[in-house]
Design goal:
Layout: H1 18-26, H2 31-45, H3 53-56, E1 62-69, E2 73-74, H4 78-89, E3 94-96, E4 104-105, E5 110-117, H5 118-149, E6 155-157, H6 167-176, E7 190-192, H7 194-200, H8 203-213, E8 219-223, H9 226-234, E9 239-243, H10 247-258, E10 266-270, H11 278-282, E11 288-290, H12 293-296, E12 303-307
Helix pairs in contact: 2-4, 4-5, 5-6, 7-8, 9-10
Amino acid sequence: MSQYVESIVALPYAELPAPLLDELAAAGLDPEQVYADVVAAVAEDLPGDDVTSWATIPAADSAVADFIAREDGVIGGLAVAEVVFRYVLGNAVEIARPVADGTHVVRGDVLLSVTGGTALLLTAERTALNYACHVSGVATATAAWVAVLEGTSARVRDTRKTIPHFRSLEKYAVRCGGGVNHRRDLSDQALVKDNHVIAAGGVVPAYELIRARYPEVPIQVEVTTLEQLKELLEIGVDQVLLDNMSTDQMREAVEIRDGSATPHCKLEASGGLTLERAAEVAATGVDFIAVGALTHSAKVMDIAMDLRS
């Protein structure tokens, strides 16, 4: 037997600890999909051998590694990082997670500790960190919006502007940060945008065509004018997206909605909104603020893995 590592363990899905799978499911994630994504991510990083770690570190060497927050933020993705470590090192690895996803942490906090073979810890390091850093970055960005909106009735909501194959985790990250998910995909809810309006001949025809074909599907319609909003309220639409409206227009839209026959209609502000303007927009009385930047522009959170000396 070689004194050096020759392969990862590649732990089968069926051998992952049941509590870990239950935790992923309770978070609204598909455990089998998470596992499949982790397998693909590891394969992307490891098409052959880890030529650095496996040549320099004997297989018998073991270590304890800590995930350390290098900045303040909100944590997410630690269960996924654990899947990475277990897939690479097997269940002989020991993992402790002193903080839970959704926790506000400060620079220097230990987020996760893992004990196992040193070489394979380093093999798994970057993939595990990629998940934790990105998910925590989205959660942290979302938490900043939530903090600004505190004391208002408005909630920050995400969009479908996500990294391909990463949508479930990014929407989970938004929940970790205290935000609200919009539709997950093109099938679970209709969203009538400007091109649909042009193709259908107006906001009302677009709405009616969808309602006729998919009577049970929720429908949200985007409007750019208050006249369009009035038309939709008259026919009982219960979700409207206010696209690129000024603060005064949004305030008037809320007044129109409140005085209509459809006062329960939810209004969502959208289009170029910034954190600096969030409180002003929330004060108009809109129910949601759509922020694509939560997922498409979030800065990763700075987390490092350090071996204990």
